[in-house]
Amino acid sequence: MSGAVLVAIAACIGNFLQGWDNATIAGAIVYIKKDLNLGTTLEGLVVAMSLIGATVITTCSGPISDSLGRRPMLILSSILYFVGGLIMLWSPNVFVLCIARLLDGFGIGLAVTLVPVYVSETAPSDIRGLLNTLPQFNGSGGMFLAYCMIFGMSLTSSPSWRLMLGVLSIPSLLYFALTVFYLPESPRWLVSKGKMREAKQVLQKLRGREDVSGEMALLVEGLGIGAETSIEEYIIGPADELADGQESTAEKGKIKLYGPEQGLSWVAKQVDGRGSLVLASRQGSMVNQSMSLIDPLVTLFGSVHEKLPDTGSMRSMLFPNFGSMLSTAEPQMKHEQWDEESLQREGEDYMSGDAGEDSDDDLHSPLISRQTTSLEKDMPHPTSHGSISSMRRHSTLMPGTGEAAGIGGGWQLAWKWSEGEGEDGKKEGGFKRIYLHQEEVPGSQRGSIVSLPGGNVPAEGEYIQAAALVSQPALFSKELMDQHPVGPAMVHPAETATKGPIWVALLDPGVKHALFVGIGIQILQQFSGINGVLYYTPQILEDAGVEVLLANMGISSESASFLISALTTLLMLPCIGVAMRLMDISGRRTLLLMTIPVLIVSLIILVIFELVSLGSVINAAISTACVIIYFCCFVMGYGPIPNILCSEIFPTRVRGLCIAICALVFWIGDIIVTYTLPVMLSSIGLAGIFGIYAVVCIISWIFVFLKVPETKGLPLEVITEFFSVGARETAAAAKSE
């Protein structure tokens, strides 16, 4: 895990620079307006230029990152930070300063938008929440250090605002060096472009092990958008438990699941859903019919986390090496990569491939073994499919080199091949990808569950009950199926990247569902009061007598203001540290539901003591306590979690585009709140402002409770499958009303 952690820390330097810039301009503007004789309008423009730049760059950053990659955009962000810092250091007049601030804003926009995406795509699922809280921690850390620097410079006889702003170039150089020489490209983006060899090398670096075949298969399956996903329930057991002479699996209504090793397979039988996931799906639909505001998705995700088996049961004897169909072949085989640069060759048979043509570094498509279907025996070998990846007899059931414990969150990845007869009497096959989740079964039901008709009941523990998300493989090609190929019709990942405009994917019900959640939580976060409380903090602390105390120590009012801001941001750091610890234990949804009520109470108390005076000392003390509690709870929940959720809930192919849409909403909301605050302050006062923020926080809690699912510990690909299922459940419930 150390590779992924170090990469996340390096990437989050972009957020450190954002926090640094926010603090330095807040301090430097005091001296800029004196030096350049700025009026109120120009003063506001200088501060706002970075916000404008971030908003503008966000509109195009997502699609470009989906096209060119995450890493090039982070490199560009570091360059913009560096150039902006140099120009601010030189700035001879306010117009040049505004241009520098605009470039700086471009860098901020790229970092804030894409760092969460990059971290989510490189982090293991079990620590993804922790690593994606680093942007919040680094941003607050940057603000604290910058305020300390400004406080120190303010104690000099002639503080230089150009130096305050220009220092940004020094850490941005470090950021540039790390993005160029250390940060790898996102493995999920590489797979989406068919660069399988490079993706494998990156994963090996991030995970610190050679065998990453299981995760490679998962990343390939994450390329699909819009496939029909269903929830099924299976009883799964080892295939060799069937007694000799028994009827075939197909004749008895059973299926085979295929594992990573040659000859390793399991027998599975679909049963009436009695597990938590299937029951939750049905319950979600019924609840949805009676109360349309409740999202079935919340129920589905909740059932997974409530029934998650312990770590021991994840490593069931049925899944000793359930890693991937993308596994390694024989060590003595010759070099040949499944990569867009090397496998796009004409004239190759779909079934071609001798034992001497591949190497142990070879990466294959996640296809079922050529030895596992009877369909191929009745059909001739087809001709070449051009640039389609070849199907090799030995490609999918080779053993991996290490033990795999699934794909995260108690889930396993498998494939199944079922056969039947078509309308013309010819045999047809169906190739499906399934995500399996072991279910806990009450002891009273275990006897009936493990009984497979037609065979003896094996010893307890040899069969398990598992829920399954069943869908078409991401590389499935309907066009090839129409040509009646032998076995599954699969294309190379690079081929799927050219299918239609990327904007069309936004119309997929699962993507629209995720966008509703992402946009909703970003809007509500912006109007939850953080900007107003930050604005009010200096006045509260001044009323509490902090500035008077510092003035008695010989510190000027300006220096005292900077020191107070530094202490305020310092208080945030340990709270963010607690959030990092809890993000993957308690979960995102739980943290929001626990911390938002504290925000509501803090805001209500601020309103009360703004309207009722119990004495200046008492009012100041209580207001100070409320502000500190508000800050601490905000950075533990509502601060980092909206960005974390938005980086998790979208499919790989449109993740950059969708998170850019959510980020654009964030920046527009920031602009609205920032520039309406003075107007609202003069019209309805602080009590009215905090009252509105309290109402928004109440709405936020209701929204989270009804619409925001718990995503902790789940692979990104499983999360997007759930959104597809949830969208289907919602549509079905709407039709039935």
From TrEMBL:
Q: What is its main location?
A: membrane
GO cellular component term of the entry, any = plant-type vacuole membrane
Q: Which GO terms of the molecular function aspect are on file?
A: transmembrane transporter activity
Q: Which PROSITE patterns match?
A: MFS (PS50850), SUGAR_TRANSPORT_1 (PS00216), SUGAR_TRANSPORT_2 (PS00217)
Q: Which InterPro entries match?
A: MFS_dom (IPR020846), MFS_sugar_transport-like (IPR005828), MFS_trans_sf (IPR036259), Myo-inositol_Transporter (IPR050814), Sugar/inositol_transpt (IPR003663), Sugar_transporter_CS (IPR005829)
Residue ranges under compositional bias (Acidic residues)?
Answer: 349-361
Q: Where is the composition biased (Basic and acidic residues)?
A: 332-348
Membrane topology per record: Multi-pass membrane protein
Superkingdom? Eukaryota
**Transmembrane parts of this sequence:** 44-65, 71-90, 102-119, 139-156, 163-183, 560-579, 591-611, 617-636, 657-677, 683-706
The keyword Phosphoprotein is assigned to this record: yes
Reactions catalysed, semicolon-separated, are:
D-glucose(out) + H(+)(in) = D-glucose(in) + H(+)(out); sucrose(out) + H(+)(in) = sucrose(in) + H(+)(out)
Q: Where in the cell is it found?
A: Vacuole membrane
Q: Which UniProt keywords apply?
A: Membrane, Phosphoprotein, Sugar transport, Transmembrane, Transmembrane helix, Transport, Vacuole
Could you tell me which residue ranges the Major facilitator superfamily (MFS) profile domain spans?
7-712
UniProt region (Disordered), positions on chain? 330-393
Q: Give the record's family classification.
A: Belongs to the major facilitator superfamily. Sugar transporter (TC 2.A.1.1) family.
Q: Report the protein name in the record.
A: Sugar transporter
